[in-house]
C-alpha cells in the first residue's frame, strides 16, 4: 500500500465555485431599453431602486446597466429634468463617496452619467433665460 496517507476529501466549501451575483433578467431588459422617451417619475424611481438594491448586493451587471440607462436618460434635457423632478439627484450624488475598491467603480457610473448630462445641459442653457435659474441652482447645490 505504500504507507502514505489516503488523499484528503475536498469539503463542500472547498469545491464550491464562487457564485456571481446577477440581476433579474426582467430588470436587466427594462434597463437596457430605458431612454428619456416617455419616461416618468415612476420609471426613474424604479431605476434608482434597482441601483440601490444592486449596490447593496454588489450586483455588478445591474450597476453597469443602471449607469448605461442613466447615461441615455440624462443625455438630453428632457430626461435630465425627469431625473431632477423625480427627486433622485441627491441619492445618486450621495454614492459618489463610495470607495472605489468597495464597488465604487461600478456605482460611480451612475453618478458620472448624471454629471455628464448636467454638464451638457449647462453648455446648452441660455445664460439669459431666468426661467432656468432655479434648475441651475438646484444642480449646483446637489452636485457641488
Describe the structure.
- It is a single chain.
- Mean pLDDT is about 80; it is low at about 10-20.
- The protein has eight helices and no strands.
- The chain is mainly alpha-helical.
- It is globular.
Describe the structure concisely for a colleague.
The protein has 144 residues and is an all-alpha fold. The protein has helices at residues 12-15, 25-32, 41-57, 60-74, 77-85, 89-94, 104-124, 133-143.
Please state the CA-atom Rg, rounded to the nearest Å: 21 Å
Annotation field: number of helices: 8
- Helix percent reads 55-70%
Task: Based on Cα principal axes, name the global outline.
Answer: globular
Largest sheet: none
Structural class: mainly alpha
Please state roughly what percent of the residues sit in beta strands, choosing from under 5%, 5-15%, 15-25%, 25-35%, 35-45% or over 45%. Answer: under 5%
Distance between the termini: 74 Å
Output the helix-strand order. Answer: HHHHHHHH
Taking pLDDT < 50 over at least 5 consecutive residues as the criterion, the unreliable ranges are: 10-20
Quaternary structure annotation: single chain
Average pLDDT, all residues: 82
Query: What is the count of β-strands?
Result: 0
Amino acid at each position: 500500500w505504500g504507507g502514505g496517507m489516503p488523499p484528503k476529501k475536498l469539503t463542500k466549501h472547498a469545491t464550491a465555485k464562487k457564485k456571481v451575483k446577477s440581476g433579474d433578467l426582467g430588470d436587466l431588459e427594462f434597463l437596457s431599453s430605458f431612454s428619456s422617451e416617455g419616461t416618468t417619475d415612476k420609471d426613474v424611481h424604479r431605476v434608482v431602486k434597482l441601483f440601490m438594491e444592486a449596490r447593496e448586493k454588489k450586483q455588478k451587471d445591474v450597476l453597469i446597466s443602471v449607469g448605461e440607462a442613466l447615461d441615455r436618460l440624462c443625455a438630453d434635457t428632457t430626461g435630465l429634468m425627469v431625473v431632477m423632478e423625480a427627486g433622485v439627484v441627491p441619492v445618486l450624488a450621495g454614492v459618489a463617496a463610495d470607495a472605489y475598491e468597495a464597488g465604487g467603480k461600478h456605482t460611480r457610473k451612475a453618478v458620472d452619467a448624471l454629471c455628464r448630462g448636467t454638464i451638457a445641459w449647462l453648455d446648452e442653457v441660455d445664460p439669459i433665460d431666468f426661467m432656468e435659474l432655479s434648475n441651475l441652482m438646484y444642480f449646483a447645490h446637489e452636485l457641488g
